[in-house]
């Protein structure tokens, strides 16, 4: 079996993680501190927020300020989510260089999340992606409810294929497959990746697992064997999804890095330094440190 030599990690904690915390939990300065500390661990791709309606997600209302204050060194990518033209304009004004549009394979989910059907979202994103590209902005696509929708249950693989094709065809350079509820087990993930690979190259896909049912690392292993080389994760397992009731945290970045290094797969990340960041943000948010590897390593450090 051939495993990839190197994996690209997309750190989603400052966006996917913090969007689930109570509004104003962290000050702007602390968000900047979190992002810069994550970058200092060697993470090169960090989602720093989203330009969405502050009425829907007040937690992300300071994304413009965050982007303006971060200095993006060569080789770093600070990304933001954008749902519509208004969001794109705000992202451009704040100096975004990369955005992500987000939809799903289930109408029930997109209706809750972005207040439109999947077809409407694709129709809306097409000109938006083109407009972004003409400004030199790279666009990623998110496809949530890969296997299971929190509102309508099992998702047929034809729906996933159709949305994935549409996102790639409109110009997204990559589609992140969101296993939103975290319910899927290994054979489900293997099945959907096999279905996608029949018509599309898996090099265009990333995976985004939630650990709600403790399946995230097992599903990462399945994705690695299938040839996926980009994986989303969130420091200290922060996160969930405000539109997926009961969804607990994302796959913890520390657990992912521990697995990858154990398998001899390179990342750019200093795990011990990342553990310091995970412990700090958990303490700051008054939460237990939810990364298993992170917590174990933290407890072994001399100062504890
Ligand atoms: C999509 C909308 C905007 C539609 O929301 P809407 O209410 O249908 O939009 P609207 O166009 O009717 O506008 C309503 C109000 O929102 C404002 N508005 C409208 N757009 C913007 C914007 N871009 N920035 C700032 N403000 C905006 C707009 O100006 C207006 O303000 P008012 O006139 O009432 O004062 C809304 O539903 C929304 O913001 N939803 C939040 C969605 C979200 O962020 N979800 C979480 C991310 S997805 C996720 O977590 C899953 C993922 C990616 O991690 C993968 C996985 O795990 O599966």
TrEMBL record:
Pyruvate carboxyltransferase domain ranges (all copies): 7-275
Involved pathway(s): Metabolic intermediate metabolism; (S)-3-hydroxy-3-methylglutaryl-CoA degradation; acetoacetate from (S)-3-hydroxy-3-methylglutaryl-CoA: step 1/1
Descriptive protein name: hydroxymethylglutaryl-CoA lyase
Pfam family of the protein (one): HMGL-like
Entries under NCBIfam families matching the protein: PRK05692.1
EC class: lyase
Gene3D superfamilies cross-referenced by the UniProt entry: Aldolase class I
Entry GO MF terms: hydroxymethylglutaryl-CoA lyase activity; metal ion binding
Organism: Nitrincola tapanii
Entry keyword set: Lyase, Metal-binding
Chemical reaction(s) catalysed: (3S)-3-hydroxy-3-methylglutaryl-CoA = acetoacetate + acetyl-CoA
Record's keyword annotation contains Ribonucleoprotein: no
Keyword Metal-binding recorded: yes
Entry EC number(s): 4.1.3.4
GO BP of this protein: ketone body biosynthetic process; L-leucine catabolic process
Family: Belongs to the HMG-CoA lyase family.
